[in-house]
Amino acid sequence: MQDRVRTSNIKAITLAEKVWPATIEMTAMTRAMRGTILAVTGSLLIWLSAKIQVPFYPVPMTMGTFAVLAIGMAYGWRLGMATVLLYLAEGAMGLPVFSGTPEKGIGFAYMMGGTGGYLVGYVLAVASVGWLAERGWDKNVVSTAAAMFVGNVLIYAPGLLWLGTLFGWDKPIIEWGLAPFVLGDLTKLALASALMPLTWKLLGRPRG
Predict the structure, then answer these.
(1) pTM (global) more than 0.85
(2) Rounded average pLDDT over 42-67
(3) Residues with Cβ < 8 Å from 87, sequence gap 6 or more?
């Protein structure tokens, strides 16, 4: 029984660790530099993805949430959360990193608008998906899909709560903040569920 408990608590290697291992030979400064490079790169990828709009029904599909969840799976929860917090800090400083910026405002003014709850959800989602990835959930299609679903729920929950608080629960909050995006998110979930295990297969699945 104790052996089973120990085995379940073993941290699985993430994609980032597979591609760029943080070895014991690294100095503290080198490890910090590695983390900084990965976090900055990840925040730039989220920035770029937020600007990508794919024609879709019933509304164009943006790739920002896909990037957030994929980074959580690739980085693990600590580095993934640091990356998303860096991205949010860039937005708070006035950089046009979000979908709809600078056209719909920048900085805190934009972040406190209708999209604010979803941005909070990014932090919750990347942490949860990263935690699940560290337990091997990114290694097959079914568990990857389950992890991505959990991440999506954690994005939408604070997003819808904030919309209801901001505009009033007498408004069609579900129609505004959820229904138009379901098909797009299911498509992104399916894409991630195929890509993550395939990437592991191409790289060679690690032991443990």
Answers:
(1) yes
(2) 93
(3) 42, 43, 46, 47, 97, 122
